[in-house]
Amino acid sequence: MMAALTAAQDGENRVTLMERQARVGRKLLATGNGRCNLTNTEAGPEHYHGGADFAECALRAFTPEDTLSFFEGLGLLCSREYGGRVYPRSNQANSVVDVLRFALERPNIRVLTGCAVESVKRCGMGFAVDCAEGEFRADKLVVACGGCAGSKLGGVMDGYEILASLGHSRTALYPALTQVRTDTAYPRSLKGVRASCCVSLRRGKKKLEQKTGELLFTETGVSGTVIFELSRAVACGGEGLELSLDFMPYMDSEAVLRHLRARRENAPELPANQIFVGALHNRLGQMLCKYAGVGGDLTASQLGETQLQNLAAACRDFRLRVTGVSGFESAQVTAGGIKTGEFVPETLESRLAPGLFACGEVLDVDGDCGGYNLQWAWSSGRLAGRLGK
Ligand SMILES: Cc1cc2nc3c(=O)[nH]c(=O)nc-3n(C[C@H](O)[C@H](O)[C@H](O)COP(=O)(O)OP(=O)(O)OC[C@H]3O[C@@H](n4cnc5c(N)ncnc54)[C@H](O)[C@@H]3O)c2cc1C
Predict the structure, then answer these.
(1) Which of 19, 102, 105, 334 has CA atoms 20 to 30 A from the CA of 198?
(2) 289: domain range?
(3) Do 121 and 255 reside in the same domain of the chain?
C-alpha cells in the first residue's frame, strides 16, 4: 500500500495493487493486539536483524517522524506511549487500514482484491504477471507479499517463490516474535500468570542474550514481550538452550536474602510456602517454593539459612529447558528472507532483474518487538515505490 501510494504520486504512473485476500491490510488489522503499534520513534538499524545495515538507507530516507507526518496527512491521529511505541489515538488498527484504503482511492491506482499473483515472468524490459483474472503487463514491479509469519492472517510463501522465479535466493526462515516452548511442568501450572522479570537465554554456563520485561506463562511454555524479544535467538539458536528467569531483577541477591530473613523474623507463623506473598504473584511464589524444595508443612520460622538461600536462588535463577518456538502460525514476523545483497539499498531495486523492486518482510530484515517491523514496511515501501527515481 505504501509502495502503491508512493508510485502514484507521479501522475504519469498507472498503478495496480494486487492483493490475494478479500481486503487489503488484513494482517495490519491484527497488529498490536488490534491497536496497531504502527511505528517506534527509536527505529534505527540497531533494532533490526538479518540485513540491518542494508535497511539503514530506507530507514533514514523515511524515518518514524516521516511515518507520523505521512499518517497525519491521511487524517490519522497518533499517540506516543512507553518505549517509543506509537498507536492510533482511536486505539483501533482499522483506523490505520481505513486511512490507507481511502488514500488508495485515486484515479491512477487500481486495487484488485481477491487477486492472487500466481507467477511472474520477464517480458522484454518489463514483466508479465499471471493471476486467475488473466495476464497483466507492467514496466516495473514491486513485490510486497510479506513473509510467512501469521499464516492465519494471510502470511504465505508466495513472495519468496515469485522472487525465486526471477532469480533471487533466500536465507533459512524462522518464526520470530513468538512464544517459546519449554518443559511444561511449571509453566502449565502457572498458565495465565504474568510477571515482570529479567530473562537470560543460556547454553550451559554461557549467557547468550538477556532481556527484561513482561513474561506470561502458557500451556506450552512462556510468552510476553520479554520472550518475544528473545524468540529470534531461540529459533536460530539450535539445541541445548535454557531460559533463566530472575523474578526480582531490581534487587541484588543479598537484598533478596535480607527480604526473606525479614519475613522469617516478622511473620514466623506464616506457612513457609507463602514467604513470597507481597513480593510476587501468589501462585508464582508458591511454585518457586516447590522448585526450591520448600513445602507448606513448615512455618517461616523453621526455615534454615540454606533453605532461604535456595529460595533466593530459585527466585533469581528459575530454569526452564527450551524445546523450541511456536510455529509461523502464531509468529509475528519471519526472521530471514530474500537475500538483501541482491538488491540496491538506496533504491530497493533488484541487482538481478532491473525494474523489479521488493520491500517489507519478504526481504531478510526483521525488527524487534515494538513497532519496528511496520516501520520497516513503511520505510522500504516508500523507497521501493519511488521505482528507482
Ligand atoms: C499478530 C501480529 C501482530 C503484529 N503486530 C505488530 C505491531 O504491532 N507492530 C509492528 O511493527 N509489527 C507487527 N507485526 C508484524 C507486521 O504486521 C509485519 O511485519 C508487516 O505487516 C509486514 O508488512 P508487509 O507489507 O511486508 O507484509 P504484509 O502486511 O503481510 O502484506 C503483504 C500482503 O501481500 C499479500 N499477498 C501475499 N501473496 C500474494 C500474492 N501471491 N498475490 C497477491 N497478494 C499477495 C498478502 O495477502 C498481504 O496482504 C505483527 C504481525 C502479526 C502476525
Answers:
(1) 334
(2) 179-326
(3) no
